[in-house]
């Protein structure tokens, strides 16, 4: 989180400079209120809201990439925070008429911040729609983060097992296993980090070539599994062949800038009710071993 916050230091610097400036000016010109004149309910309400706004701002900065939406959300929350903070501070001080920033921060910064935040949320909504479209193949996984493979951000093997049962009504249901050829030597030659990048990029290529209803999971290492609901044998073979071609034509760029081409082995099984998820996965893995070089349907 600290790394991510470092990327936003300019926005944070602006907000904290304004905050610091207002605080110093308050202390310089203001006169401390006697203890009994302080409205503690206001202090708790306004101070608590200011702290909550600052925490929201840091959470957004710590979790979002650089860009216009992040800028709008942060600055919106930042100005709202400043207004709320000033509200809380002036509970402790009598401020003279010359303290022009007091009404300015209280009455202008809040609506200005709300305006920026609203505009930012509108663009966030549009950005989210675009991301949803892009990630349709992973949609179900995104509702179940604990099943997510941290490297490729698709479902893991345990999620696959669960989904075989969940989707079992969507007959005919096909389970397809895919394995990259020569991944161990690739790792040895180009390094594990480059291997990780290859796995991530292969995931993207596979997702781009699947239908919205298909579910891609990372079964293990360089092995992927796909659940294809409402899919007949011919259709499954066609999709398998398209995936094989897509991976064969994907020019992965190694760290030294050279193109490296991959190939896949594919195995498929029909998910019949009478077989358990484990049995189906075993059968798909066996079909995969038989793939020399075309996909087999068991
Ligand atoms: N970079 C990287 N490598 C991984 C990861 N998980 C497993 N591996 C490696 O993947 C390799 C899988 O080995 P194999 O199953 O023999 O793969 P292969 O060389 O393609 O052999 P075949 O599958 O028989 O074609 C091993 O070297 C593992 O160390 C990972 O998350 N990242």
TrEMBL record:
Signal sequence residues: none
Keyword terms: Membrane, Transmembrane, Transmembrane helix
Enzymatic reactions: 2 GTP = 3',3'-c-di-GMP + 2 diphosphate
GO CC terms of this entry: plasma membrane
EC number(s) reported in the record: 2.7.7.65
Positions of the GGDEF domain: 171-298
Matching PROSITE patterns: GGDEF
Name of the protein in its database record: diguanylate cyclase
InterPro entries: Diguanylate_Cyclase, GGDEF_dom, Nucleotide_cyclase, Rev_trsase/Diguanyl_cyclase
Transmembrane segments: 12-29, 41-62, 69-88, 108-124
Gene Ontology BP term (one): cell adhesion involved in single-species biofilm formation
GO molecular function, one term: diguanylate cyclase activity
């Amino acid at each position: 989180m600290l790394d991510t916050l470092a990327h936003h230091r300019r926005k944070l610097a602006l907000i904290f400079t304004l905050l610091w400036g207002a605080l110093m000016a308050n202390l310089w010109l203001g006169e401390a209120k006697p203890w009994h004149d302080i409205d503690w309910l206001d202090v708790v309400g306004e101070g608590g809201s200011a702290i909550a706004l600052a925490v929201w701002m840091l959470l957004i900065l710590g979790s979002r990439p650089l860009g216009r939406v992040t800028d709008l959300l942060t600055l919106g929350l930042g100005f709202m925070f400043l207004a709320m903070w000033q509200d809380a501070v002036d509970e402790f001080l009598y401020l003279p008429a010359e303290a022009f920033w007091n009404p300015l921060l209280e009455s202008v910064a809040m609506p200005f911040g709300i305006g920026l935040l609203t505009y930012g949320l509108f663009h966030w909504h549009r950005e989210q729609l675009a991301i949803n479209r892009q990630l349709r193949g992973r949609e179900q996984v995104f509702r179940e983060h604990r099943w997510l493979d941290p490297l490729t951000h698709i479902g893991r093997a345990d999620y696959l097992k669960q989904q075989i049962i969940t989707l079992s009504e969507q007959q005919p249901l096909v389970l397809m296993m895919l394995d990259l050829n020569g991944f161990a030597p690739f790792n040895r030659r180009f390094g594990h980090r480059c291997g990780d990048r290859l796995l991530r990029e292969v995931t993207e290529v596979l997702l781009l070539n699947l239908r919205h209803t298909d579910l891609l999971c990372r079964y293990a290492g360089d092995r992927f599994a796909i659940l294809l609901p409402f899919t007949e044998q011919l259709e499954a073979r066609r999709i398998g062949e398209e995936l094989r071609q897509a991976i064969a034509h994907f020019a992965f760029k190694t760290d030294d800038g050279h193109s490296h081409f991959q190939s896949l082995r594919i195995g498929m099984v029909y998910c019949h009710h009478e077989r358990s998820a484990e049995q189906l996965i075993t059968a798909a893995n066996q079909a995969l071993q038989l793939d020399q070089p075309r996909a087999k349907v068991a």
